[in-house]
Every structure is written in C-alpha cells, then in structure tokens.
C-alpha cells in the first residue's frame, strides 16, 4: 500500500510540474502588458527572440516560436530597437487568417516574417520542391494538424535553398492512423 501511495504521489507531482512548466509561458505572456512592459522585461520573461524583424516605422518585432510541437508562435512588437523599447503588441501568428494571406511568389523571408520559424523543412528532390511545416491548432483534441508552405528550389535540384511559394496545404493526423 505504501508503494502504491508513493507511485501515485510521484505521478501527481510529475503532472503538476508539467502543468506548471507549460503554464509558465502563458503566465509570462499575460504579465507582459502592451504600453507598459519594456524590452528588458520581455527578454527576462521569454528569453532571447528567435529572430528580430525591423519594421518600416522604426519599431521591431521579436519572434518567439513555441515549436517544434507547440501550436503557437508569438510576435511581440516593441516601439524601438534595443532594450529601451516598450511592448506595443503581442500576436499569435499561426492563424487561419495568416495562412490565407500567403501568396504564390512570396519569398521564404516573407513567409518566415508572417508565420515564424517552421517546425521542419523537407526537400523533395524529384519534384523538385522544398516544404516548410508548422504544427497548428486542430478542431479535434486528439488529432495533430500541420500547415505546409511549398517552395520551388533555387539553384537547381542539388540546391537546398527555398525559392518562391508555389502553394500551401494542410494535413491532419488521427491517433493511430
């Protein structure tokens, strides 16, 4: 009986730790209020961004992908470069609206700027094609959903450089099938 109770307590502690770990991102984001939080506070709570995107108005957008298995990517826009900036906006960018904005002919940089870092990149040399993949939210809780952007291959079949967008696709996987 004592070992059963100990096993239950261990499982309960592991579950609580996992909830605390995954809930941490949400708590950190909730604490960052636009118009109030500084760039230094953003770095302190979320760490360094995966990318920094300068904007035409002088502001900068910091990219925080939560992959490869996460289904969100946060873009936080700050009023200026460096640690003096103030948070202006926080946006989850892996949305149906953003997927629909992608057009044929876009460059990899335009796609990355809109959706953030992909979960993976796969080259299909016989096609030739390069496909970027993001894990995205699904309607059915046990499924996994993925959004894909298809690119030409720049520099010929032997190249690993994505060219321009040729289209997008989506797939959903059910458990065990």
Task: Describe the secondary-structure layout.
Elements: H1 2-31, H2 39-46, E1 51-54, E2 60-65, E3 73-78, E4 87-92, H3 96-101, H4 108-115, E5 120-124, E6 129-136, E7 144-154, E8 161-173
Antiparallel strand pairs: 1-2, 2-3, 3-4, 5-6, 6-7, 7-8
Concise account of the structure shown:
The protein is built from 4 helices and 8 strands, in the order H-H-E-E-E-E-H-H-E-E-E-E. The chain is α+β, with helices and mostly antiparallel strands.
Structural features, described:
Helices cover 29% and strands 33% of the residues. By secondary structure, the chain is α+β, with helices and mostly antiparallel strands. It has two domains: 2-92, no CATH class; 96-173, Beta-lactamase Inhibitory Protein, Chain:B, domain 1 (2-Layer Sandwich), CATH 3.30.1450. The strands form two sheets. Strands 1-2-3-4 form a four-stranded antiparallel beta sheet, with helices on one face. It has a four-stranded antiparallel beta sheet with strand order 5-6-7-8, with no helix packed on it. It is globular and about 50 Å long. Mean pLDDT is 85; it is low at 5-23.
